[in-house]
Design a protein that fits this description.
The complex is a heterotetramer of chains A (288), B (327), C (398) and D (260).
Chain A lengths: L1 H28 L6 H18 L4 H30 L6 H20 L13 E4 L2 E4 H23 L1 H11 L1 H6 L4 H27 L6 H15 L4 H21 L7 H15 L11
Antiparallel strand pairs in A: 1-2
Helix pairs in contact in A: 1-5, 1-8, 1-9, 1-10, 2-3, 2-4, 2-8, 2-9, 3-8, 5-6, 5-8, 6-8, 9-10
Chain C lengths: L1 H21 L9 E8 L6 H20 L3 E3 L2 E11 L4 H13 L4 E3 L4 H14 L2 E3 L22 H16 L3 E7 L2 H16 L3 E9 L7 H10 L3 E5 L6 H10 L5 E3 L6 H8 L7 E3 L10 H14 L6 H4 L1 H12 L7 H10 L2 E2 L9 E2 L1 E2 L1 H4 L4 E2 L3 E7 L2 E8 L3
Parallel strand pairs in C: 1-3, 1-4, 4-5, 6-7, 6-8, 8-9
Antiparallel strand pairs in C: 2-3, 10-15, 11-12, 13-14, 15-16
Chain D lengths: L5 E10 L2 E11 L4 E5 L6 H8 L7 E6 L2 E2 L5 H7 L1 E3 L12 H7 L9 H6 L2 H20 L15 H14 L4 E5 L7 H16 L3 E6 L2 H7 L2 E6 L2 E6 L1 H5 L2 H8 L9
Helix pairs in contact in D: 3-5, 3-6, 5-6, 6-7
Classes of the chains: A mainly alpha (288), B mainly alpha (327), C alpha/beta (398), D alpha/beta (260).
Chain lengths: 288, 327, 398, 260
């Protein structure tokens, strides 16, 4: 059982970080970013190139991934999303744009990096063993880094000026604007930050799970589920959703092991029932 | 409606019918491009399913779960035809009704959700449908149902109304006419629905559910009704597709399809009943047209999609009627 | 205005892309023989179709550069027409319709069960022989007659592998894990049946994972606890194999791991490193130990053209070779699928990809399907070791 | 005195540990204008939602002509003749004023929804009747000039009137008005007061929840005063004006709104 809980916590840490970027963009812009998974994949490939092929230190690769995605996020916001949000009658229209961007990134990544699964050398070797518990050190390190990033993100949102501005914006965009928050600028910053988080976690996980050009879509959908459980647009919700899904998978796969085929069916149906009872997830903001 | 507008509408309908049932078949016969029959049948069937999604948009719900009902409809028809030996023609409406009924049960709890929560729960619903199809014995699990016979003849009092599809030299032609006829029927119904009192109530609900209920509208019931109609359309589309493919697998309709149905609505324009039809035509046919571009196909396709969104963020049909906001 | 100039720049880029793509092959000295491909070259399963398309393109380019292929008294240039079905059976039908429209009679693909079943009505009506990489027996047994299985099926390789492992490595218990999708689940079911038939104890036959799983530790934790002698990764995608192996080994799994599908050594090396040592898979049909000079040249050309070789192409090179060689044996088959079907039964030609000069290309499948609807490719069972596959044994189907 | 049209008994609503409304009871007589007033945060809007059944009470009940309506779905309550209005932000943004009022005639339809779909005789008769009735209501409330404007383009004063028009279209026996005078200047308030009187004169009982003491004093037949979720007074405007508890409650908050 210790192993199951450890697995769940480890999965939860990485899921929470994946969900964080998605929920941030949703909170600030009301955009459901279908391209989140593709951004994750791109982050993974940047680390593959820099750490795996160019043999530079892992930290450098991670910074490169974060920077690449931040720039990409900013460009997407400035030249695509901002225009469409301004000109469309219904803000959901950004979904088509986001899906288009997702397909575009999918195609571009496939053309640039090829169709194969890629992996890099381990960042640390060895396995931590204690009683029945087996955890490779690199997983522990990755989970630790993920949690560190989450904490850093929360601290930034709580105590820095941009953080406070973005929180105000997430609560009430018009009010924030009246209070003098430059919402256009912080929309850009938020989008860049959300994309950066996706790239960061993609880059982090390439050391464990590798990366391939096709997994963007599935990752996005998984991220949607976490956000849905925790509640959309709330940082705490994303983190809770990530950990809950991680636990759910870990415990579900073990408990329902003998029923095998239906494990995910049960998890998904449970999720639907949960949402029917709590229509805004665990702690989400209601929809406009 | 003024007389000139009425005349205009009648002319538009006549042109549409002539194009679909006369001009296109003639053009195909002249050019020999019989492959277009299938492509256009697909467009028609996907448009039917997208029309359902559009209706849920119309009551203010972003539905990314239509793939589930297409799959359920497809399986319902396939099981009735293969296991119980029903005629395809009977199985088609039954499949649609089965979807409508099931969607009422599912819709009752989930339609309380709004915005992204509804979208995501329907997204999960698609996956639930796929996993259920994999797990159930009646759907034959992972092996799917194959070798489904093509639709037979319809005979009434010894008169053959529709000949069996196996008797046609080109099997795609009868499917094209079936799909196009169903699409015409479904969209005519949808158009009438939206322009009848029910449609106005739906529009009222989309804009404000509380206000609508304050004037005595049974909002939960109407939501379920709209969703059931939507799922009915999904089921019909799925069932005919299965008849064309003569096979169905749990992966015949997936999350990708659900997302595409939604995108068709966005691209055509949410404010227009015929939006999903045009959206499906452009998105589906566009992919086909680009097939010569080989490895760049997806890149170009998505690039065009992004450009269209930039230029016409309110859908293709907003080009003609700039921001009138009326269906 | 910025948004306008963006649009214009985008349109320009697009136009140039289309022009680039349209400026395709054909210096029309020879008549062109078109061969089709309908399969998946984008999305999560892109690797499967891509290795098909690239083998076909490499081979066609090679032949065309030598002046074309001589079929009967004419010499043809080979043109490969590809269609990406996005792993969607509905698109696969459209693709097959396109092939029929282009007058193509020989199509490689689709790559998965649902697509292969969906295109069957079109192919039969339009007179197309297609070569799926999908295992459902209905596709190849009567009354179906237009599909030819392009590789060794899991229900053929599975028993051979388990038998070998039972006899040589003392395997007694076996556990299965598969993605919860049609193809892997079907392959798992046939694997379980084969293992039971051999008298092995099946300790886990229901564990599945979602296609979005990136970390397999939770999936494998309960299985590793059962401590089977052999862990079978049924129908595992090449991308997932190293991840599963790594998770199992890191959880302390000491037994053997095997799969019935072809894998890529580079992917295993990058994804699992030395943890993948000892992993048993069905290798591409022309592994280093048995391959000929011609195969080596093919690999060299492939690598030069696309930057990197894919070991799956060891098998996938065969389909086009078979098509052309069968047409050479019976030139009338170029326009007549019925001729092709007649020729299949007695067809035999030299296998250019194997060192062993007595090796022949011929069609098999009588045992599994009751008719010859499968390409005979060597069943090569490999063991991965330090970035390379080492051949354990070679067998033949039928 | 006839039996009251609406009776409120021991109405209580708790949110977690917080009691928003505590054991409030009062009656509404047929044909009167009754106002529920109280300082900000007194629980007025909760009472309003409880009566219109948008919120279920923790305890207690609301009866309409002797029949319990609390706990029923809002649309069922509306069907019985208890109709609420919203403040001006709650409208059908994409519809014209006239269309909004026509749609609001839903409860009066004789034809079924299927009948409307197929355009039966009954349905067409309904459509004509609704259009005529809507025009009458719009004129009655002075909205006939702006009937074809999009609701979202109307100024605030017109939106208030539109809210009442939508309420009237549902053919209410008792109309619940949610702060009909909030945010209005003296002149607008005077017009609004006239409007409410006219509605009552059509035979519709009016229950107001309001903050603006001056207007309430002018218009109401009787007043119920709430503070901290508890009823502290009930009576005619004169009686309320003289009530010490009321003065105290209001002085504690903001004295200029009392209008004394």
């Amino acid at each position: 059982m210790e192993q199951v809980i450890a697995n769940g916590l480890y999965l939860g840490a990485q899921y929470a970080l994946i969900a964080l970027g998605l929920t941030l963009i949703f909170a600030l812009m009301n955009v459901l970013n279908f391209a989140h998974g593709q951004m994750y994949v791109l982050g993974g490939f940047v680390v593959y190139e820099v750490y795996g092929l160019m043999k530079l230190p892992f930290v450098v690769a991670l910074i490169a991934a974060a920077a690449t995605l931040a720039v990409l996020g900013a460009v997407l916001e400035r030249f695509l999303f901002r225009t469409v949000i301004r000109r469309s009658e219904r803000e959901e229209s950004t979904m088509l744009l986001a899906a288009g961007v997702a397909y575009f990134l999918d195609a571009a990544i496939l053309l640039i990096f090829g169709e194969k699964q890629r992996g890099v050398r381990k960042i640390v070797n060895g396995v931590f063993m204690w009683d029945n518990l087996i955890l490779p050190w690199d997983r522990i390190l990755v989970a630790g880094l993920a949690i560190a990033f989450i904490v850093a993100f929360i601290l930034m949102m709580q105590y820095t000026k941009p953080g406070r501005a973005m929180r105000a914006m997430a609560q009430d965009r018009t009010a924030a604007q009246l209070m003098g928050v430059p919402v256009a600028f912080y929309g850009l910053v938020g989008f860049a930050l959300g994309a950066m988080l996706a790239g960061l976690v993609g880059g982090l996980l390439v050391t464990i799970t590798g990366v391939n050009s096709g997994i963007g879509g599935p990752i996005s959908i998984k991220a949607f589920m976490m956000v849905m459980i925790g509640g959309a647009g709330v940082v705490g919700g994303a983190i809770a959703g990530g950990f809950i899904l991680g636990m759910l998978e870990s415990v579900g796969l073990t408990v329902l092991h003998s029923y095998g085929d239906v494990t995910y069916l049960v998890i998904f149906i449970a999720m639907m029932i949960f949402l029917a009872i709590r229509p805004n997830g665990l702690m989400g903001k209601p929809w406009g | 409606m003024t007389n000139s507008r009425r005349a205009g509408s009648v002319a538009a309908v006549a042109v549409f019918l002539a194009a679909v049932f006369v001009a296109i078949p003639l053009a195909i016969a002249a050019t020999g491009r019989t492959d277009l029959y299938y492509t256009l049948s697909s467009v028609a069937l996907l448009a039917i399913a997208s029309g359902g999604v559009w209706l849920t948009f119309y009551i203010g719900r972003i539905n990314i779960g239509q793939g589930a009902w297409a799959l359920v409809g497809g399986y319902a028809s396939a099981v009735l035809v293969t296991t119980y030996g029903w005629s395809f023609w009977l199985s088609l409406p039954v499949a649609g009704l089965f979807c409508a009924l099931m969607s009422m049960l599912v819709g009752l709890p989930i339609l309380r959700l709004r915005g992204v929560y509804f979208s995501m729960v329907t997204l999960v619903l698609t996956e639930v449908a796929r996993l259920t199809a994999l797990a159930l014995p009646i759907t034959n699990g992972a092996r799917g149902i194959t070798s489904i016979p093509t639709p037979g003849a319809i005979r009434l009092f010894g008169v053959t109304l529709v000949p069996g599809f196996e008797t046609f030299a080109n099997r795609n032609a009868p499917f094209y006419f079936l799909s196009a006829a169903m699409m015409t029927l479904c969209f005519a119904g949808l158009w009438r629905l939206v322009h009848s009192r029910l449609g106005r109530l739906f529009a009222a609900m989309r804009q404000n559910e509380e206000l609508a209920s304050s004037m005595g509208v049974n909002v939960p019931l109407l939501r379920v009704v709209a969703y059931a109609i939507s799922s009915f359309l999904g089921g019909i589309g799925g069932a005919i597709f299965v008849a064309i493919a003569q096979s169905i697998y749990p992966s015949s309709f997936t999350i990708n399809d659900s997302v595409n149905f939604m995108l068709n609505c966005f691209l055509g324009g949410l404010g227009f009943v015929f939006g999903p039809m045009l959206g499906t035509l452009v998105l589906y046919f566009g992919w086909d047209l680009l097939f010569q571009t080989g490895q760049y196909q997806l890149l170009i396709y998505s690039g065009v999609m992004i450009l269209l969104m930039l230029v016409l963020p309110n859908g293709l049909l907003s080009l003609r009627w700039p921001s009138r906001g009326r269906p | 205005m910025t948004s306008h100039s963006t649009v214009r720049a985008g349109l320009f880029g697009l136009a140039s892309l289309i022009a680039l793509a349209a400026a395709a092959p054909a210096d029309a000295a020879n008549p062109v023989l078109k061969v089709g491909f309908v399969g998946v070259t984008s999305g999560p399963a892109a690797a499967w179709g891509t290795s098909n398309v690239r083998s076909m393109q490499t081979l066609a380019e090679w032949w065309n550069s030598q002046g074309g292929v001589k079929i009967g008294d004419k010499t043809y240039d080979i043109d490969v027409v590809t269609f990406d079905d996005q792993k969607d059976p509905k698109r696969a039908i459209a693709g097959m319709e396109k092939m029929a429209q282009e007058g193509i009679h020989y199509v490689v693909g689709p790559n998965v069960d649902d697509g292969a079943a969906a295109v069957r009505p079109v192919a039969e009506k339009a007179g197309i022989i297609y070569f799926p990489y999908a295992f459902p027996k209905e596709l190849y047994t009567k009354p179906a007659s237009n599909a030819v299985l392009g590789m060794v099926a899991s229900y053929q390789s599975g028993p051979a592998i388990y038998k070998y492992l039972k006899e040589k490595k003392g395997v007694k218990s076996v556990a299965f894990v598969a993605a919860n999708e049609s193809d892997p689940l079907s392959q798992r079911d046939s694997g379980v049946a084969a293992a039971k038939a051999l008298g092995l104890t099946v300790v886990a036959d229901k564990d599945t994972y979602q296609n979005d799983t990136r970390d397999f530790t939770p999936v494998l934790t309960p299985i590793v606890k059962l401590n089977p002698d052999l862990l079978v990764l049924s129908g595992v995608a090449p991308a997932n194999a190293p991840l599963l192996i790594r998770s199992a080994r890191e959880l302390g799994f000491k037994g053997l791991i095997s799969t019935e599908t072809a894998q890529d050594a580079k992917v295993l090396e990058e994804g699992a490193g030395e943890l993948a040592n000892g992993f048993i898979s069905v290798g591409g049909a022309s592994t280093p130990a048995i391959r000929s000079k011609a195969m080596e040249e093919f690999i060299a050309r492939y690598t030069k053209k696309f930057g990197e070789y894919n070991d799956e192409s060891n098998t996938k090179v065969y389909a086009l070779q078979y098509i052309i060689d069968t047409l050479k044996a019976d030139p009338k088959a170029i326009d007549s699928v019925d001729e092709f079907k007649k020729t299949i039964d007695g067809f035999s030609a030299a296998n250019p990809y194997l060192k062993d000069e007595s090796a022949k290309l011929h069609y098999v499948g009588d045992t599994s399907f009751g008719q010859k609807r499968q390409l005979a490719v060597p069943l090569v069972v490999n063991e991965y070791k330090d970035g390379k596959f080492e051949t354990l044994f070679v067998a033949n189907v039928d | 005195m006839t039996a009251p049209i609406l009776t409120v008994r021991d109405l209580t609503k708790r949110y977690g540990g917080l009691t928003a409304v505590n054991e409030v009871s009062f009656d509404v007589q047929e044909g009167e204008i009754l106002s529920v007033i109280g300082p900000n945060g007194a629980g007025k809007s909760t009472i309003f939602k409880l009566i219109s059944s948008f919120v279920k009470p923790t305890r207690g009940e609301v009866r309409f002509r002797g029949e319990v309506i609390s706990g029923l779905a809002p649309h069922v309550v509306a069907r019985k003749g208890v109709v609420r209005t919203f403040q001006e932000t709650t409208i059908f943004k994409g519809m014209t004023a006239r269309d909004s009022v026509i749609v609001a005639h839903h409860l009066r339809s004789q034809a079924s929804l299927a009948g409307f779909f197929f355009g039966t005789v009954a349905a067409r008769r309904d459509e004509d009747a609704f259009a005529r009735s809507a025009d009458e209501i719009l004129e009655f409330l002075g909205l006939d000039a702006v009937g074809n404007e999009l609701a979202s383009n109307l100024p605030q004063g017109h939106l208030r009137a539109l809210g009442i028009a939508i309420g009237l279209a549902a053919d209410p026996k008792i109309l619940l008005l949610d702060e009909p005078f909030a945010g209005m200047n003296v002149d607008e308030t005077r017009q609004a007061v006239e409007r409410v009187r006219a509605v009552r004169d059509r035979g519709v009982t009016c229950l107001l929840v309001e903050h603006d003491m001056a207007a309430v004093m002018k218009i109401s037949d009787r007043i119920v005063v709430i503070n901290f979720g508890v009823k502290i007074a009930e009576g005619t405007p004169e009686a309320i004006r003289a009530d010490d508890k009321v003065i105290e409650a209001y002085l504690g908050v903001e004295d200029e709104t009392i209008g004394l």
